[in-house]
Amino acid sequence: MAHPLQLGFQDAMSPIMEELLHFHDHTLMIVFMISAMVLYIIMLMMTTKLTYTNTMNAQEVEMIWTILPAIVLITIALPSLRVLYLMDEINNPHLTIKAIGHQWYWTYEYTDYDNLEFDSYMIPTQDLPNGYFRLLEVDHRMMMPMESPIRMLISAEDVLHSWAVPSLGVKTDAVPGRLNQTTFIVTRPGVFYGQCSEICGANHSFMPIVVESLPLQHFENWSTMSS
């Protein structure tokens, strides 16, 4: 989850989020290099004693400022396309979960199990147990097995919502009448927090998402008891 004064992303808990963090660091270094070069040129222009400014032709300079940005764009675009295709790739998911957004709560349906469906409401502050996070905890968490490909089918019943869990690198719009899908793998057990990321009405801030990752045996025990 996020913490006060956090400047970077949350720790990666899925391979996709790890790729996004690597791409972010790669792009940030390019931005720093460009910023340093532009600052150097500005300082050079401010301190130069050259006064001859009647040059009308500078083929070498024009080639440099055309080719160099093209190279920079290519070094950003290729890793970006790679991550984009990895995010869209879905191969034989072990479990499919359908998340439906409502004003203002989420409904989860485990399509591979019979009668496994529940609503997930935020726990009000006055009912929150000690040690739980205000505005982030729910009464029924979305449980899932770790180290298994999970396919999320995401839709909405009333208005636009968005199912987002930053530490998993997942953010997919929930659109009424449309079924969007995304996939991810959680690499370790834990509890991961997210929120609706589309302004959906008065209680938009009060429909959090909590995903709990369990070892497979524990998940099977939970699903058996919940069905």
UniProtKB/TrEMBL annotation:
It catalyses: 4 Fe(II)-[cytochrome c] + O2 + 8 H(+)(in) = 4 Fe(III)-[cytochrome c] + 2 H2O + 4 H(+)(out). The keyword Repressor does not apply. Residues 92-225 form the Cytochrome oxidase subunit II copper A binding domain. The keyword Transmembrane helix applies. Pfam families: COX2, COX2_TM. It is found in: Mitochondrion inner membrane. PROSITE patterns: COX2 (PS00078), COX2_CUA (PS50857), COX2_TM (PS50999). Keywords: Copper, Electron transport, Magnesium, Membrane, Metal-binding, Mitochondrion, Mitochondrion inner membrane, Respiratory chain, Translocase, Transmembrane, Transmembrane helix, Transport. It comes from the Eukaryota. It is a multi-pass membrane protein. GO terms for molecular function: copper ion binding; cytochrome-c oxidase activity; oxidoreductase activity. Binds a copper A center. One of its GO terms (cellular component) is mitochondrial inner membrane. Component of the cytochrome c oxidase, the last enzyme in the mitochondrial electron transport chain which drives oxidative phosphorylation. The respiratory chain contains 3 multisubunit complexes succinate dehydrogenase (complex II, CII), ubiquinol-cytochrome c oxidoreductase (cytochrome b-c1 complex, complex III, CIII) and cytochrome c oxidase (complex IV, CIV), that cooperate to transfer electrons derived from NADH and succinate to molecular oxygen, creating an electrochemical gradient over the inner membrane that drives transmembrane transport and the ATP synthase. Belongs to the cytochrome c oxidase subunit 2 family. This is Cytochrome c oxidase subunit 2. It comes from Chelydra serpentina (Snapping turtle).
